[in-house]
């Protein structure tokens, strides 16, 4: 079996590291524009846009924190602190271990900040070093970068390996039956990609799910444990349906955000690598981000016996028998999308590689506007 860590590389050059984080920050901003386009098309409603935008913001904050942490990578700081490790084959994203380490650092952020000089003091000492000693204040720059890192962690609202489920009421279906939308997210440790889940369910319990002190913690633990990219949606939904007799999953969606392709940073195989190489786009425009949306919906409800005298509802989920992978997909449908700058898109259209005809394409113009083709 191939060791996945062989595809993990450290970005040890200062300017390469900064360009990498700047690239991701721009991509996340473009994704917000994509969300706006999808909303205008009716593919997502206001509440769903708000949820996905919140997770995009969390990712942006996490990348910004890592950017501060590794701001001085490759420079002589007097202290070895490593370099960002990224998955340059499967995802183009930082490896999950970086997110785990950041979570540990966040627990100590308040204490670390108390023991560090203030930002104003560090900047004042930098000026004195430059003017008085006529030296580049690299060690002070490093100290400031670490202070900014811990300050970003202390602000919170970051994307972690596990982001606990949250619930929002959608209305009452009938008396004693409510509808909720649940959402949660994870950073898949197998392929180093962020994954976002949305579930719509009906609740026939006596107490509304988020206020139920018994069921709600159980639901959160169950869904977090099942947040594995390798599991089919059908497996997740059926397991949930079987474990909670008074919760009825009606719709489950999963968004795999990535991979990110970049001619400068990644070495994924396939047509996109060739497209980016041929496009020869300037720095900052040599990338493409792919994401996949899977959806599973309930087709009908059947009743099963439960004990001697009672019955429970069970969902029968709709599977697409005519899809590319048929019932083996374990979902009702799957759709792939891609966002990329204008020049790589032009090469993609010229080459027209197999498999891209059905992919939804969002193109970033030089002025930052996002259009769908």
Low-confidence regions: none
Order of helices and strands: EHHEHHHHEEEHHEHEEEHEE
Most strands sheet: 9 strands, mixed
Number of contiguous helices: 10
**Strand residues, percent:** 25-35%
Number of separate domains: 2
Question: What Rg, in angstroms, do the CA atoms define?
Answer: 24 Å
The percentage helix is 25-40%
Question: Count the strands?
Answer: 11
| Strand-pairing-aware structural class | alpha+beta
Distance between the termini: 40 Å
Morphology: globular
**Mean of all residue-level pLDDT scores:** 89
Plain-language structure description:
By secondary structure, the protein is of the alpha+beta class. The chain has 2 domains: about 5-155, no CATH class; about 160-370, no CATH class. The chain is about 40% helix and about 30% strand. It is built from 10 helices and 11 strands. It has helices spanning about 15-40, 45-70, 95-105, 110-115, 120-135, 140-155, 215-225, 235-245, 270-280, 340-350; strands spanning about 10, 85, 160-175, 175-190, 195-205, 245-260, 285-305, 310-320, 335-340, 360-365, 370. The strands form 2 sheets. Strands 3, 4, 5, 6, 7, 8, 9, 10 and 11 form a 9-stranded mixed β-sheet that branches. A two-stranded antiparallel sheet has the order 1-2. β9 (about 335-340), α10 (about 340-350) and β10 (about 360-365) form a beta-alpha-beta unit. α1 (about 15-40) runs antiparallel to α2 (about 45-70), α2 (about 45-70) runs antiparallel to α6 and α5 (about 120-135) packs antiparallel against α6. The radius of gyration is 24 Å and the shape is globular. About 35% of the residues are buried. The mean pLDDT is about 90.
């Amino acid at each position: 079996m191939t060791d996945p860590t062989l595809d993990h590389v450290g970005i040890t050059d200062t300017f390469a590291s900064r360009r990498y984080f700047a690239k991701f920050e721009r991509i996340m901003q473009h994704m917000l524009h994509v969300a706006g386009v999808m909303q205008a098309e009716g593919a997502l409603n206001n509440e769903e846009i708000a949820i996905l935008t919140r997770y995009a913001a969390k990712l942006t904050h996490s990348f910004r924190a890592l950017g501060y942490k590794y701001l001085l990578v490759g420079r002589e700081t007097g202290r070895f602190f490593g370099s960002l490790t990224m998955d340059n084959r499967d995802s183009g994203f930082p490896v999950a271990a970086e997110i785990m380490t950041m979570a540990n650092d966040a627990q100590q952020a308040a204490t670390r900040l108390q023991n560090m000089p203030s930002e104003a003091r560090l900047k004042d000492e930098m000026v004195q070093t430059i003017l008085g000693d006529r030296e580049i204040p690299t060690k002070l720059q490093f100290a400031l970068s670490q202070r900014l890192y811990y300050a970003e962690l202390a602000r919170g609202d970051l994307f972690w390996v596990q982001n606990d489920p949250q619930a929002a009421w959608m209305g009452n279906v009938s008396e004693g039956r409510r509808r909720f939308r649940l959402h949660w997210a994870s950073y898949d440790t197998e392929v180093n990609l962020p994954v976002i889940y949305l579930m719509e369910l009906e609740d026939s319990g006596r107490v509304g799910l988020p206020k139920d002190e018994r069921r709600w913690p159980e639901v959160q633990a169950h869904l977090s444990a099942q947040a594995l990219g390798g599991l089919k949606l059908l497996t997740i939904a059926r397991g949930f349906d079987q474990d909670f007799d008074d919760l009825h999953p009606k719709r489950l969606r999963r968004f795999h955000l990535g991979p990110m392709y970049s001619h400068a940073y990644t070495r994924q195989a396939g047509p996109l690598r060739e497209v980016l190489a041929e496009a020869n786009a300037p720095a900052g425009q040599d990338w493409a981000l792919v994401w996949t949306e899977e959806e599973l919906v309930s087709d009908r409800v059947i009743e099963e016996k439960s004990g001697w005298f009672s019955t429970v509802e069970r969902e029968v989920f709709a599977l697409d028998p005519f899809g590319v992978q048929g019932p083996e997909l374990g979902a009702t449908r799957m759709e792939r999308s891609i966002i990329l700058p204008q020049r790589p898109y032009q090469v993609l259209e010229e080459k027209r590689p197999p498999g891209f005809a059905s992919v939804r394409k969002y193109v970033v113009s030089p002025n930052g506007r996002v259009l769908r083709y």
